[in-house]
Amino acid sequence: MLAVQIKAEQEIAPLISSKKLFIFECLGCRDVYYPVEEAEQFIAGLKEGVVGKASLDYLCHREFTHEYIKAYASEIEKAQVILVFSCGVGAQVVSSLLEDKIVYTCCDTLYLNGFQGLTVQEFDCDQCGECYLNYTGGLCPIARCSKHLLNGPCGGSQDGKCEVDPDIPCVWQQIVDRLAKLGQLDTLERLGTAKNWNVSPVS
Ligand code: SF4
Ligand code: SF4
Questions:
Q1: How far is the CA of 19 from the centre of ligand 2 (A)?
Q2: What is the DSSP string of the chain?
Q3: Which CATH architecture has domain 2-136?
Q4: 112-130 pLDDT per residue, tens
Q5: Which atom of ligand 2 has the smallest separation from the CA of 147?
Q6: For a Cys staple, 129 with which of 136, 168, 199, 201, CB 3.0–4.6 Å?
Q7: pTM beyond 0.70
Q8: Nearest CA to ligand 2 atom 8
Q9: What's the pLDDT tens digit per position in 82-103?
Q10: Where along the chain do its domains lie?
């Protein structure tokens, strides 16, 4: 099991102020606890900023989500920011499919004991608690950096490949490249605050 927890409004509000928003909401699978009512209250509070919303199951399924993106293309085109309500996998899938958009997650993903589910997914989430995707362009530094760095790159990457495992890309190089492409490199300046590891299984 894993549990999704809605982030505090004060964490999200500065990121989306005066922005046009498109929302992806994953209604989950049976192995994920998703707080539907709390999410709906949060979304209702966004009011006029929302230009469209898609609610679906299995946002982690890349082909499935790709079809939804095509179906909502005109609303997504109008949006300046994409907000995702899902576990960390779903948020990464949306981010990877909408490379020219700023994608923020509104959720933290927490580990719970028990069966972790079987889903078709390309990206991993270590269910670390306080999700860091909003600092890193939607790419997970916990699951995808060999050293789990929160302040990479470590300086050891060669030609965009990881120093520890040259068979994988250096995710911190990808994070910097993506933020630069979006004109969001100043996001990295927000990385100064300490991560809350208390809710993580690896704390
Ligand atoms: S930072 Fe990575 S491991 Fe942590 S919740 Fe987000 S996607 Fe999952
Ligand atoms: S090379 Fe990149 S992915 Fe590998 S450990 Fe260093 S920062 Fe992490």
A1: 33
A2: -EEEEEPPHHHHHHHHTT--EEEEEE---TTEE--HHHHHHHHHTTGGGEEEEEEES-TT-HHHHHHHHHHTHHHHHH-SEEEEES-HHHHHHHHHH-TTSEEEE-EEEEE-SS-------SS----EES--TTTTTT--HHHHSTT--SS---S--BTTB-SS-TTSB-HHHHHHHHHHHTT-GGGGGGGGSPP--TTSTT-
A3: 3-Layer(aba) Sandwich (3.40)
A4: 766 555 555 677 898 899 9
A5: 5
A6: 199
A7: yes
A8: 145
A9: 999 999 999 999 999 999 999 9
A10: 2-136
